Amino acid sequence: MKLSVLIPVYNRAVGSLLNELADQAVRCTGKIEIICLDDGSDFYAAENKETAERLKVQYHLRENKGRAVSRNELMRLASGDYLLFLDCDSGIIRPDFLETYLRLIDRTQTKVLYGGRVYPENPPGNGFKLHWKYGRKIEAASLKKRLKEPHLTFMSNNFVVQKNILNTFPMDEELRHYGYEDLLWALVIKENKINIDHCDNPVRHEDLCSTEVFLAKSKQALVNLSKLVVEQKIDHRSTPLLKTYDKLLSLKLLKLFYFFFGLSKKIISIQLKSKYPVLGLFSIWKLGHYAEIMDKMSDKA
User: Fold this and answer.
1) DSSP single-letter state for residue 29
2) H or E segment to which residue 5 belongs
C-alpha cells in the first residue's frame, strides 16, 4: 500500500511543513510520496521549489485555477492507493502523524478518513481574534462531536481518501473561489452511501486571517453557498445557517429579520472587529449577509 501526501500551495512558504513530512516519511513502515501543486503563487514559489528539490519532493507549478481543480490535478499526479490531502498552512503536531494514518488505513480499510484540526492555544493580536475564536469553537470540533455529524463536520484540510473514490467523485471544479467546497463533496459522498470516518490525528492551522480578511472570505463563502442552494447541488437545510433561514422563511419572519439586520449590521461589524468578538453575533452577521445575497439573486431572476 502506498500513501500519496498531496499539498495544494498558494502564497505560503512550506519549507517547515515539507521538512517535517519528509523526515517522517523516511521513518514510516509504508511507502510515502509527497507532491505539491503550486496554484499560481505570487510569492514563495521559487523558495518552495528549491526546498522540495532538496527533499526529493515533487513540486509542480501552474497558473491559478482554484482549490477544487488543484485537488483533482494532485489526484491525477499521485501514484498511491490512498491520498492524504493537507492544506499548505498546516502544522504537524504528532511525530508519528504519517505512521498513524498508515496504521489506521491498514487496520480499517477506510474509504474516507478525516483527522481533524486545532488552533493555537494562545490568543493572537486583536486584529485576528474573530478567526481564532471561530476556529477554536467551530472548526476545531472534538472527535466526539465529529463522530455525531461525520459528513457535516468534514473539512478538506487534513483527510485521507482512496484514490478510486476521489476519481469517481472528484471535487466540483465550478467552485473556483473559497467556501463550502468541502461540504459539497461530503454531501455527494453521503448521497452515494460512502461513510466518512474520523480519527484524532489533527494538524494545527497556522495562518490566521485578520478580521477584515476573514469577513471578506466569509462573504465569498456565502456567495458560493447561495449558488449551491439555487442550483440544488445541496439541500436548502444542509447546515444550521440554512435551517435557520428556512425557518424564518416558513414563519414569514425573514423580512422582519432582514429589516432589523439592515439597521444593525454596521454595529455588528464593529463589534466583530473589536478585542472581544461575539460568535453569536457572527452567526447573525452570516445569516444576514446570506439573506442579502439570496434577495439580490431573487431580484435578478
Assistant:
1) S
2) strand 2-9
- Alpha-carbon distance 286 to 283, whole Å? 5
Residue matched to cell numbers 498513524: 100
All structural domains of the chain with their residue ranges: 2-208, 235-300
Where does residue 19 rank: exposed (0-12), middle (13-18), buried (19+ CB within 10 A)? middle
What backbone torsions phi and psi does residue 80 show, to the nearest 5 degrees? -80, 160
Closest among 173, 200, 10, 169 to 88, alpha carbons compared: 10
User: Which secondary structure element, helix H or strand E, spans residue 199, and what is its range?
Assistant: none
Strands 117-118 and 203-205: parallel
Give pLDDT tens digits for 18-59.
Answer: 999 999 999 998 899 999 999 999 999 999 999 999 999 999
Topology, domain 2-208: Spore Coat Polysaccharide Biosynthesis Protein SpsA; Chain A (3.90.550)
Q: Is the pTM of this model over 0.85?
A: yes
Measured CA distances, 207 to 6, 114, 182 (Å) = 19, 20, 19
Residue 95 DSSP symbol: T
How far is 257 from 248, CA to CA, in rounded Å?
A: 8
In the DSSP assignment, the letter for residue 238 is S
How many helices and strands (H and E) does the chain possess? Answer: 12, 10
CB within 8 Å of 216: residues ≥ 6 apart: none
pLDDT per residue as tens digits for the range 109-134: 999 999 999 999 999 998 999 999 99
Element (H, E) at 171: none
The beta strand positions in 64-145, using DSSP E, are 82-86, 90-92, 112-114, 117-118
